[in-house]
Amino acid sequence: MHGILCMLLLHPMDAYLEQELGRRCRLLRFCWEDSPQDLRDDFLRTHGPSVRALVTVGASSGADAALIDALPRLEIIACYSVGFDGVDLARCRDRGVRVTNTPGVLTDDVADHAVGLAIAALRRIPLADSYVRAGQWKADGLGKYPLTTRFSDKRVGIIGLGRIGLAVAKRVEAFGCLVSYYQRRKLQGYPNYTYSPAAAELAANSDIRVVACSLNEQSRRIVSREVIEALGPSGVLVNVGRGAHVDEPELVAALAEGRLGAAGLDVFEDEPDVPEVLMALGNVVLAPHMGSGTRETRRAMAELVLGNLEAHVLRKPLLTPVA
Ligand code: NAP
């Protein structure tokens, strides 16, 4: 990778990845999210013309057209994520900029996390934890402790039966759950999983809805008011996709008013800002977008980013190209 003279890193990342990038090329670090526009402009004016590679996250603050245009010698954007909805792919294609992501290596962790969120939401695990820590078990016994809802045998509807969705399906089958799914293409070879041709129909036929699709114009707010109403007061929403998949104000209102039973949320529309109302609700389990956040997976993601950059410099085929 020594052929890449200048690499830009816009978000603090895995320490190993930063160390390896620093060892192999001239690394410019700039904290994009915490910097006001004038500082960003100054930085790009000074350093933009020398940047040939960008390592970023593919979520909302990935790389928009303005950033791509401010880097005239940019050759490759390596996303440290499987999602690349925050990267302006059309602009990259126009400019001939290559784009890579990190598919596959994070699938199992995100699926584990989705199932964990569903169980935590139904069995109210955070509530149980605080009940014990606050000394209520000792003081009040279990007489006033509320009963919870079973996870096993539920009907699970998955939006997006891709890598992560399929891994969720495999896991919940072991819990005796019935699986149905919605996405644009019906899959061949999965007779146990029922295809729903519409998102609202899927919600009406499932107790737990897991969002695991990629974000694009058709899937933005795919969990609409109609879908939330179809899930209903005993329904559970789990979102490990992107915050923008859900009509968040509707979700917050439905949870607060009991029109939706519970939710397990790893992603939010305006991360890291989480709607204040959710903080006080006992029927929601919140997580800071950490579906892939294990040491094992982050190392594998870092290796894939490095492998793609290495391949680019050596003019070999990219390992996991998106564009
Ligand atoms: P994948 O294998 O590419 O699967 C994406 C799935 O989404 C496909 O089955 C696709 O099916 C479906 N899809 C795409 N557009 C759709 C639409 N408009 N309506 C309904 N379904 C649609 O990707 P993956 O590896 O499973 O990752 C999925 C997503 O998970 C990523 O894009 C990312 O946003 C999210 N993610 C989150 C975390 C986390 O930490 N929470 C970590 C990793 C990934 P069709 O093309 O047939 O519609």
TrEMBL record:
GO molecular function annotations of the record: glyoxylate reductase (NADPH) activity; hydroxypyruvate reductase [NAD(P)H] activity; NAD binding
GO cellular component, one term: cytosol
PANTHER family associated with the record: 2-HYDROXYACID DEHYDROGENASE YGL185C-RELATED (PTHR10996:SF178), 2-HYDROXYACID DEHYDROGENASE-RELATED (PTHR10996)
Pfam families to which the protein is assigned, alphabetical: 2-Hacid_dh (PF00389), 2-Hacid_dh_C (PF02826)
Keyword Oxidoreductase applies: yes
D-isomer specific 2-hydroxyacid dehydrogenase catalytic domain location: 27-322
InterPro entries found in the cross-reference section: D-isomer_2-hydroxyacid_DH, D-isomer_2_OHA_DH_cat_dom, D-isomer_DH_NAD-bd, NAD(P)-bd_dom_sf
Family named by the database record: Belongs to the D-isomer specific 2-hydroxyacid dehydrogenase family.
Keyword list, A-Z: NAD, NADP, Oxidoreductase
Protein name listed in UniProt: Hydroxyphenylpyruvate reductase
Residues of the D-isomer specific 2-hydroxyacid dehydrogenase NAD-binding domain: 115-291
